[in-house]
Structure formats: structure tokens, C-alpha cells
Amino acid sequence: MSNTSAARIPGRNILAVPGPTNVPDAVQRAMVVSMEDHRSTKFPELTHGLLSDLKKIYRTAEGQPFIFPSSGTGAWEAALTNTLSPGDRVLVPRFGQFSHLWADMAQRLGFDVEILDVDWGEGVPVERIGEILKADRQHTIKGILACHNETATGVTSDIGALRRAMDAAGHPALLFVDGVSSIGCIDFRMDEWGVDLAVTGSQKGLMLPAGLGILCVSQKALKTIGHAKSRRCYFDLADMVRTNATGYFPYTPALSLLYGLRAALDLLFQEGLDNVFARHHYLASGVRAAITEGWGLEVCAKAPKWHSDTVSAIVVPEGFNAAQVIDTAYRRYNLALGAGLSKVAGKVFRIGHLGDLNELMLVSAIAGAEMAMLDAGIDVRPGSGVGAAGQYWRTHTPGAQTATHAATQRVAEPVARRAANA
Amino acid sequence: MSNTSAARIPGRNILAVPGPTNVPDAVQRAMVVSMEDHRSTKFPELTHGLLSDLKKIYRTAEGQPFIFPSSGTGAWEAALTNTLSPGDRVLVPRFGQFSHLWADMAQRLGFDVEILDVDWGEGVPVERIGEILKADRQHTIKGILACHNETATGVTSDIGALRRAMDAAGHPALLFVDGVSSIGCIDFRMDEWGVDLAVTGSQKGLMLPAGLGILCVSQKALKTIGHAKSRRCYFDLADMVRTNATGYFPYTPALSLLYGLRAALDLLFQEGLDNVFARHHYLASGVRAAITEGWGLEVCAKAPKWHSDTVSAIVVPEGFNAAQVIDTAYRRYNLALGAGLSKVAGKVFRIGHLGDLNELMLVSAIAGAEMAMLDAGIDVRPGSGVGAAGQYWRTHTPGAQTATHAATQRVAEPVARRAANA
Amino acid sequence: MSNTSAARIPGRNILAVPGPTNVPDAVQRAMVVSMEDHRSTKFPELTHGLLSDLKKIYRTAEGQPFIFPSSGTGAWEAALTNTLSPGDRVLVPRFGQFSHLWADMAQRLGFDVEILDVDWGEGVPVERIGEILKADRQHTIKGILACHNETATGVTSDIGALRRAMDAAGHPALLFVDGVSSIGCIDFRMDEWGVDLAVTGSQKGLMLPAGLGILCVSQKALKTIGHAKSRRCYFDLADMVRTNATGYFPYTPALSLLYGLRAALDLLFQEGLDNVFARHHYLASGVRAAITEGWGLEVCAKAPKWHSDTVSAIVVPEGFNAAQVIDTAYRRYNLALGAGLSKVAGKVFRIGHLGDLNELMLVSAIAGAEMAMLDAGIDVRPGSGVGAAGQYWRTHTPGAQTATHAATQRVAEPVARRAANA
Amino acid sequence: MSNTSAARIPGRNILAVPGPTNVPDAVQRAMVVSMEDHRSTKFPELTHGLLSDLKKIYRTAEGQPFIFPSSGTGAWEAALTNTLSPGDRVLVPRFGQFSHLWADMAQRLGFDVEILDVDWGEGVPVERIGEILKADRQHTIKGILACHNETATGVTSDIGALRRAMDAAGHPALLFVDGVSSIGCIDFRMDEWGVDLAVTGSQKGLMLPAGLGILCVSQKALKTIGHAKSRRCYFDLADMVRTNATGYFPYTPALSLLYGLRAALDLLFQEGLDNVFARHHYLASGVRAAITEGWGLEVCAKAPKWHSDTVSAIVVPEGFNAAQVIDTAYRRYNLALGAGLSKVAGKVFRIGHLGDLNELMLVSAIAGAEMAMLDAGIDVRPGSGVGAAGQYWRTHTPGAQTATHAATQRVAEPVARRAANA
């Protein structure tokens, strides 16, 4: 088989790109399923459970989740074509490759896209948008497309603040949010933030292979789909609404991934969503300690308020090529780092710290990046990254109330292990 | 997990719907993969191999295959939106639920759809289309949408004849073919038949879970994509053409399914495509023997020339409800039969005989259908279906030259097995 | 890989040998585990759960189960060497290949083995043993080795009656029982029957791959292990008793199989042990209907009281070679039947009907055996086997109270399935 | 299931015990197999391939390998009982828990065991044995039991030198070698060293779950099995010799593990055995750099010549308890370190560096051990371990000729990765 045919590189590839993420064993197992009739009387049990539980992930009571056999890009398209008509005006702050691509999609789908360019390293310009909305007295703007976590630069934006600015302007535009690299990792509050269309994919916080595009839609947005004139069929929500109601899908669903999703949701609930978010913050803080305190380098995000808890883009010093670091990491150390994309190509490399991770898995990425930087001639002290991250983790615990409690428990049990003959 | 939480029904569910099909062990195994960076230097090896090998499945030298994270329905949409502009006139013969759904999609996507209704149980009306094309002197018809194998009725059409009719009319319309339930099972000759857009999905002849929509496009059709004005982004072929060229995809691909596809293609080539087709014909003939000779019933397909080698729709006698047969089969015998859809709901039940199957796997479906018919009060002789199928299979071998040879070999080796103490 | 390298035989191999049995999906999944430290503080949770739940399978409150990384043969040896000393006299009724092999093992391990030969097709000669025991006033007989279900001939013996005969003789010999092909399939009552050492393996009723030898030991037998002078180390129970107490094993356990066992036990309890037994009887009765009513043949077991609910040995008519039937079934129909062993080689073929099975899985075996018999020239009516089995199953339900109830439920739900658009 | 039921600890457990080792994906996949008839005509292909390829692992032309469903402990027993008779005199140098356990087994099996106690941290005392053998003019010593790699202390002995000493003494004793934690990792030359019985298990260098005990036997040793009077049945080699000859086993083999072994052998050959050994040395050297240069600590092995390339036992400073380090590592950092056993309990913790490993997987173990030591109050500089290991690995390549070449290739390819749109 082609995946073992080439020269064997021993050991596990260390996957530190910001998605796809590591698939936990329990999820991997859950996907080993025999096929079944997706129109059986038994099938709706699976569908209903998934759709109901996805609401918890989105922290929504009134929103309705949808699952497409697609990548997250498909869910982007579903969000736009089901609620907008060609020529509709949308506002898109752009500050990275993924906000760029979403804007580009909106243009290609025929909307009137107004791009707000922002320095890469910053996020959604809330005040500026507030002013634009206030100025839009005729409410010609139909939607705002905001990237919650820009995967290319490691920047998280404040969607709650964006909602407040929209409300302050009394503007009825729909709020579209790309949560592909945040949902399931960083707190995401669909109802509280008044998000209308929230997009994610299976291969990030949901810890699955790619193949599911997931979209959650507010009641307000659902009401618009009858009026939206964008042509669509595969991604048509009306078909989904109708068939999902009885537990089915309009066409054959990606069964093995659905069973994987079932297991992934179970894992997230078992850990507790608040604990999941706290863990991501705690792990990200260690990685940032490695970057700044250990290596003396900077992240692409220009201020702590933009720091992403799921991905860090590390700026290599002037005169060095980040692509070389990435290449050495991959070829010599079997480590997959994220590349700098577009405007920051060659200037940054990225470490994804999202999904099913813990301290020592991240240590591999930090050490490998460090070794590759040294190989590239970048002057960092050997061991400094892991040292700084380790010191952070040793002296902190994940912050959520329950998580702290759990962490305490993990340490507090007596050293009773391994009896004499063990 | 939800797939084991309910009351346990022991043993394997017998999957006899016409897709999804049974996933072979080797394919199931191949999907147990760790995630990896889909932008690594190693990744193109996988992509190039798959795209190159798919051409063999389509029997095309000049066509270009594409793989989408979607169901087959997505590939239908990709075929249409990349080559047609809103208002374009297309001709769609309709003779079952799937030809109906494709016509419906074409309408919803804004094309000028001319439906040719044909009795359910017949297939593409080649002569009638020939006449329409001849009459279309201005070549206003841009495409013909033909369902190679109508899954709802078990009818296979003659696409070669359709091409000859188009050529005889000297008509330049594009030939769109739905091969979802034929490709990889029934001989499909993209180049020889001059098919321009050939659609399939992963969950039928390719023996995978659903989740991949596969489309093969002729050079002629590829030339049109620059002019087609249908709005599209997720399914845009231009993005695919550009990124596939270097072995990548425009967005995160469905990795585990791609590795499964690798293994599935290997299996098909290992058996030999001609042998695969011969096996499907041989197995289907046995099922038809059960239906007609064993049970004295009829299939929905109105003449032998329409008989499908991948699915048979069995007409229950007047006064009986096929839905009851299906329901009893599922609940009491753990057998998933295909339901009658739309016009034939309640009138037929379907046995899928496609994918990774052999005689004795089909015996389960035949016997289970027979037992469920008896439970429903239908007068068939117990054992008659299996008896007739078995007699067919005992006295025939799969027809392809090499397959016959292989079958001979399978029997000819001496009875040297199982020594004394075994 | 070698398991796919040879000429591909399409479809699933129908596994109808009396072990190994079909591994359910949930068990297959459960074995896809990363390795872990078997001396961790977490590990005992697994061990304790398994050992505790195995008691339920043995229906014992006081017996203690042990799990060895071995085949069932290893558990045979463990039973003998931990309780007997070289020269100890044991009584072994012999009526098939497996009772023969256990006797042979006992001889090779240095015990004084008194073999009671019984016609193959009959089982434990309870009365004869009762007489021998009564005559053994000095209690020189230390053990009786009884095969509960002789896999070679499809004969089940009455262990309860054997215990009553032992008690009637007031004899203190240990009662050793081979339950390899009965435990988890046929009711086995360790405590009620006063079994002292009950042996099984993972690959039969426990629905796992081979690799675990399982032994349950009564308190009476446990008391003897300090006195037993047979040399042993790997299979020494004292090491197991000591390490199991805290949840560990004396050496590295077969981890993936242990996780599989966890899942297998969960499935058995989910179905309900009584339902499992009732299902085996119901399925076996259908197979016997095929053999006797359908084909007009006989099973090896000489009277209904010996009929095994886990395996049937079918006697082919005079002048035919059962090996040819088996060989054709395997090569031409991809069906693995059990061979006749030793005395019955060539005279019988065997259908295993144990483990994770249902009606339609067995139909494959019955039909395949029938087709292979026809190919061999044996005069059976095509379809007669499946017809007779089907009629039995259609008109009966598994007998246990709860099972009947469940079966009723399976049928009683309204025919509400498959809505319009399905 | 019990393996996910408890409080979820996120991310992968870092497995750094010296066995079981990490199972590569390709091996994990290979074990997902349906059961099959182990007496089929197809089965011998698997058996013959495995037995033949195991000879390459042992570097033997004349030795014969055997595979038992057992742990490595079972293979220890098979080696002894098939070649020795009760009362036979054997010499056992003892310098760790595993040499101790083998000696203990030999005593329990009734041999006359002469233990040569050696300081833990040293290995086989070749000169002393040479003298004993020379003194044994009557050749009363029948066997020498040597532990090639003492897993408890991280000490590798020179088996070639031992052979030379035996030859110098002209002594015919059989040479028994425990290669459980060396074979498949450290060069092992059965023929060149004149090893008579070489034992290993599946869960170390062979990268499988535990469950297979593997033994390779020289022709000289094979000749003794007819004379050896130790009682045995399960582990009897004569049964294996007889059944293996035609590709079968005396009892049901552990099928899923055999398929895993097939895949594991393929991986080892694909990498190249010399490369595998060179990689283990290179990785071990990095770990030792972490211990000595980074942390300023010592390994248990008392001189470089004893350094094991598969496991390092790290001595914690006076006044600290290694058990606390191990416990913190497990509970707080999800890292499984090996415990100090018996004489060195509390004094050492162990890092296994064997099996399917690379630099960055080991980094996790080093960093986790360091963090746990810091938590325990041991004065090591944060990051020093990973820094020293990384510097070693950055400046060295695996030493074997071909490996160096491969490593060069891995680095030399141009930095052509990740095109513009990636």
C-alpha cells in the first residue's frame, strides 16, 4: 500500500500543524464500523444524538446544527448560499489566509464583498466595523464574515465584542463566524454572542479526519433561507431541515465519520467543555513561554489579546527562511509544522496546539522546531524552549474550576504504585 | 457508544441495499491511519497515484478524474455547475428516483431542464433522444443527463448506443452520465462511449464508506469550465485542476477515505476489472434466477436488456406491501433490503448485488427476503430462491476469459488439504 | 502484505468452522488500542473487571477465573499441572479428537490415565463412571476429565448428571471440564454442577481471536495447588493468585486481547446470557432441520440428547468423501467448513454454529455446504437445506423467556419505516 | 468500555517503559482481520513466511524459529523444558530482575541451578564463566542461561565473548539467551555467536502487543529434545516441528497477532535490520547524553561497555525516591516510565528506548522525566535533558552505512516544499 511503500521513516510522525489534529484512539476505533442502511429504522438514533449534542459544542439552545459530507470549506459555502442572494453586500475583515479565502469565496459566489484589510497579526477591527454599521443607515450590509481564529497567523478575535458593536449600531446584518480552528478548543458562545452562522470542520477541535463540514444556524438565519436566491442544491439547508427532522439525510451520509463524531463528542463531554478550553489555554501558554521566554522570538499575533490558544505562528529572525525550518523538521525530525501562508510565507512557521493534546506531545513539537532552527543557523539555546514550556506547565494548572480540581486529584493520590515484584 | 448502546441484535447485519456496500477488510484496515499534514512533500505520492489509477476505473486515457469530500450528489453538482450556465438547456430522461433527483437538481441550479419521462422499468430512450437531437439544429441543447444504472428500478441503459445516437445526429451536447451504481461493477467505457462527465461515489463499486464524490471529466468538457457561468466555489474544478497538478487539494481532503480508496483500487486491480465485471454479472444472474425461476416473481426492469447487474428490484404480487417484507427482513432477520422509492414504493423491494460480494453472501439476502415474504403471506416455496440461485452458480462460472480460468484453478487443485491430525 | 498478496477471492470468507468464530465489530474495534504500561496504577481496573465478570460467564460465585496468554490447550495444561502430581490416576472418557487430545496431554504430563473409550457420537458415560467411582473405595482416582462439548463430533454431555454420579459414589475426585466450545454458548453451571476446573479459550463463545486460555478453579481445587507436585512455572496458578489480587499479572499480559475480552463480555451481558444460550439452541435447531429434514442426512451425534448446540458433524452418505465437500466449499464458494478429524476423517464435515451468529449468517453455510455436496455428486435437493432451516426459524423463536419477549418486540413494531423521500 | 470509562486524561499516553512498545500504525492495521480457518489450504502461506522471515531477525541460517501463543516467559520455559531433564545442572549469571526470574524459573522446573551473582549494573561475567567451564571437566553443566539485555538495569552483555569463552573451554553446554529486550533492536547473531536457544517476545523490538513467545533453536539443541525428560505438552517443540513442517500449528494460533507479526517483520526489513540497530544506538546515545551531560546523573550500567541501546536505568540522587518521579510522571504528565525493580526499587527509573521510535518521541519521555524530577525536588536544569539529547542527535546520524546514506538523503532534498497556495 502506498502509505507504507516508500522508504520507511521510523516512529510516529509528530503532527503539529493546526489541523488535521491527532485522532484519539477511541475515535479511531469508533470509525471501524461495518456499513449499514442509512435509511433503516435504527439510523435516526445516531443522527438525532449527534445533532442534539453538537448544540452543546456550539453552546446554543436555539441554533440548529447541520452536518455535511464536505470539508469546512463546504460549510463556509452552505452558510453563504443559504442566506444571501447574489449582489448582497457583505463585510469581511481580512487579516490572514483563511479570512482571505472566505472573502474570495464570497466574491466568487457573486456577493458584493467589502474587504476590510487589517494588518496580519491583528484580528477583527470591532470599532471600525461598528462605525461602518452605524453609517449603513439603509442596512445594505447583509452579513459580516468574521474569522474567530485566524489559523494562518494565530490570532483570535473577540466575537462577543463584535456582537456588541453590531447591537450598538442597531444593525440587522447576519453574523457569520468561521470557527473552524476554534470550536471545540476555545470557548465559543453562539447564543450569547448572537452568532447566526457558525462554521467548523471535523478535523480540528473535533479530533476527526477531515470529511465533515459542520454548520450551526440561528433561528434568525433559518428564516432567511426561503428568501436567499443563491442557487444551491448539495448544500441546501431546506433539504437538510426536512430530512434531519426524522433522523435522516438528503443523501448518503459519511457513515464512518459520523460514528467517529459520536465518539469525539463523548470524549469532549467526558472531559468537560470548560476543561477542554482551560486545557487549550494552559497548553498554549506553555508553547508561548517556549517561544518568547525560551527562544526570545515573537509570535505573529501583535498583542496578547490576539493570542490564539489553538495555533502559534512563530516569526523567525530576519535573514532566515521559515520554510527551511519547516523542511528540516519534516525531513530530519519527522515533525510536521505549519507553513507560513501567503503574506507571511517564509517569515513564520506554525505550531498547532489544538485537539487531543497534552504537555509532552507538545514538547516534541517544541524540541523539533528548536532543533530545526538550530540546524538552520538560528541562534536559540538548546533546550530553552522545552525548559521554558516545562516550567510554565509545572507551575500552573489548567484554569477552569473543575479542571483545577481534576489536576489536583491527578497529583494528590498517594505514591502507592508498583508493588514489590512489579 | 450509540452503535452498541441499544438492545443487541446478535450477528452481522446482512447489508443488501444497493449502497453503501460491504467494506472489505483490507479497505477497513487501510482507513485506520494517523492524520498527517496534507501539505507535506510526501503527500502528492498518494494524490497522484489515486488520480492516475481512477482513470483505469473509468477506462479513460484522456479524461481527468477529481475527488471531492462529498457524497455522489456533490459530484452531480460539480459536473453541472462547472460546464453549464444558468438557462442552459439540458435533456434528462427520467425513469426512476435517481434520474428524477438529478433532473430536480438541474432545475434548482437554474438550467432549462427538458425531462423525457419513460416508464419506470425501462432505461434511456436512445432513439427518442436521437430524434430530438436531430431536430435541434441550433444546438440549443447543451447537455444530456443519463443515468447509466437507475438504482431505484434496477435498470441499466446502453450509454454506447446513446453516444452513437448523438454522433448520428452530429450533436455537440455534453454527455453527463451518472455511474454511481455502475462504475467499478459494470463495464464503463468513458473514452469509447465519449462520456464527458462521469459521476460516481465512494460507497458502491469502490467499496468504501460514503464521503467521496468522484467525477471524471473529458478534455472537451474541461475546455468549457472557463465559460460556464454557474456560480460555484467548493465544487470549482479550476481550483482542483490547479492544486491537483502538484499533488494537493484546494482544501483539507478526507484523508482516511483517500487511504481507503487506495486500498480499494488495489483490490479491484488485483482481481482484474474484467473479472470484477464478470463476477457482478454472474452473481446478478444467480439472483435473477432466484427471483424468476425460484420464486416465480418479476423484476421491475421490463426486459432482459435493461437488467442491472448491480441491483434487482423485485415486484411483490398484487395485494402485498413490499414495505412489510422489508420491515420484517430488517427487524426479524437483521437483513437490510432496499426499499421501493417514490412511484414504486410498496411495490418493490430491492436487493443490491454490488461491491465486495460472493455467492454465499448473496444467499443470505435471498433467503432472508424469502423468509420475510413468507412471513408476509406471499406464496413462495421455502428454499426455492436459494435453490435456483445455487443451481445457476453451480453450473456457471464468471464469464471473463481470465475469470473462467481463475475459477477453474480454484476447483482443480487436488484435495490435499487437512492432514491427519488437523 | 501476505494476507492480500495472493489471488484475490472476492467477498467475505464464510467462517463456519467451530472456532475461531466471527469477531463482532465492537470487539474488533476494542482491540485497536495503543499499548500501555501493564504495571500502571490504572491497569488493575481492567483486570479486576474482567476477572469479576468472567465469574458470571461461568455462573460461579466461589470459583476463581484466570486468564493466560495461551490457547485453550494451555488452560488444559494449567488445570492439570496445578492440581495433580505425576502418577496421579485420572479417568478420561474419550469419544472424539478433543477428548483424545486431552487424554494424550495427561499421559504426556505423567499422570496415570485411564481412558474410557466410548463410541464417537456419544458422550460422557455417566453410569459407567459412577460404577467405576463406586468401585474405587480407596479414592485412587484423583480427577475426571470430561469434555462438555466434543467439537469433533458435535456431542454435548450432561455434566450435571456426571456430578450427581460422583456425589452418589461419594467420590472426592476433582471434576475437570473442557468447556472450550460450550462456555458462553451452552448453559454452563460451574457451581451448580460442582465443576472444579473449567477450561475455555477466547476464540469460541467469547468471540475473540485465539490467544487467551481461560480457566476457572473451584475453592476445593485451589486448595490442592500447594500440594500438586507437577512442575510448572508459566502456568503456575500461585503466581496468578498473588498478582491478580492487586490487579496485575505475573508477566506481560496480551493487552489487545484483554480489551477485546472486555468488549466481548459487555456484548454477552447486553444480550443476556440466557438469551445467548437460547439463541444458540434456536440456531442449532435450524441447522439440524436442514441436515435431517432438508437433506435427509444424519449428524454424528447418535441421539438427540447428545446434540450439540454449537457444532454439528454431518455424516456424508456411503461412497462419498467429506473432504471433497469441504475442499469444494472452500475453493469454489469461499466457505470454511470444519473437517472430520481422526476416526471420522472423510466421513463427516462440520458446521460450527457458535458465537456471534444469526439465522442469515448460517444460511450461507448451509447453502454452501449443499452446493458443495451437489458438486460432489451427493443427491440432495437444491434449496432443501435452507428451506428447512428457514421454516424452522420462521416458526420458532429463541426459547428463553426474555428472548421470546425480545423477539416479539423485534417483530411487533409498526411498519413505520422509510418515509416518503427515503 | 473500561478503557474510556474513567476520567479522561487528554492526549496520548507517552509510553516509555521498556516494553510493551509503541505499535506502529501499519501493525495496528494489520491486526484488524476477520478470523479464518487455521487449517485451510491457504493458511500455510502465512506460517511459512513468518517462520522463514524470523530467521533473518535472528541472523540464523540453521536455527529454527517457533511461535507460541504465550508471553516471552513461555518461550523461556519452552527453551528449558525441551532441552533439559530434571536435575540437569545449569549456570545462571544474575544481575537484574529478569536474569533473576529466569533462574527462579529454572529452579522451579527442577534443574540444578548454579547462580552467579554479579553486581546489578554489570553483565555476564565472561571470564568467570570461562573458568567454571574449564573446571567442569565432566561437562556436568548442561546449559548457560545468559540475559543478553537485562531490562531491569539497562545492561547489555557480550554474547559473542561468552561463546568464545565456552569454545576456549571446549565445553558442550547449551547456550540459552534471553533476547527479549534486544532482538530486533540490538544486533543479535545467533549463528555467529553459537546461540542454541534464543528467546524473545512480541511486545519489544517486534512492536506488537504481548501474546507471542518466540524461540529460535539451533540444530544442536533440536537434537536434544528427544532426550530431554522434562514433562511438557503445551510448549513441546516436537509437536511444533511436526505441524509447522506443513504450515500449521498444534493448536489454534493467535491469528491477529500473527498478521501483526507479518506487518512488523515487513517494517523491519523495509528499514533494514542494520539501520534498525544503528537507529537504536543513535537514539540511545541521545538519551544517555540527556542523562549524563544534561542532568548530570548516572545510569545504572557501570561502564560504557554495558550500556544498553534499548533501555536506560537512571539513578536518582541520594535522598530521593525514584518511585515518586515515576508516579508524578504518570499522574501529572501522562508519561509511563519504567520502575526500579527489586534491588533497585526506588533507586532508579527507566526509560525504554526501543521499538518504533524516533528522536521527538523520546524527547517527550526525557522532558517528562525532567519535569517529574523537578517536581520531586531533584536539582536539574529545566530543558537540560532535551537540550543535550537534541545536540547529540543534531550532530550525529545513525551509524550504519546505509542508514547514514538514508539520513543524508533525508536532509539533502531541496527545500521545494509547500507551494504558494499551500
Automatic annotation (TrEMBL), chains A, B, C, D:
Pfam families: Aminotran_5. GO terms for biological process: glycine biosynthetic process, by transamination of glyoxylate. The keyword Oxidoreductase does not apply. Its cofactor is pyridoxal 5'-phosphate. Residues 30-340 form the Aminotransferase class V domain. Substrate binds at R350. It comes from the Bacteria. InterPro entries: Aminotrans_V_dom, Aminotrans_V_PyrdxlP_BS, PyrdxlP-dep_Trfase, PyrdxlP-dep_Trfase_major, PyrdxlP-dep_Trfase_small, SP_NH2Trfase/AEP_transaminase. CDD domains: AGAT_like. The modification N6-(pyridoxal phosphate)lysine is found at K204. Keywords: Aminotransferase, Pyridoxal phosphate, Transferase. One of its GO terms (molecular function) is alanine-glyoxylate transaminase activity. The keyword Transcription does not apply. PANTHER family: ALANINE--GLYOXYLATE AMINOTRANSFERASE 1, AMINOTRANSFERASE CLASS V. Belongs to the class-V pyridoxal-phosphate-dependent aminotransferase family. This is Aminotransferase class V-fold PLP-dependent enzyme.
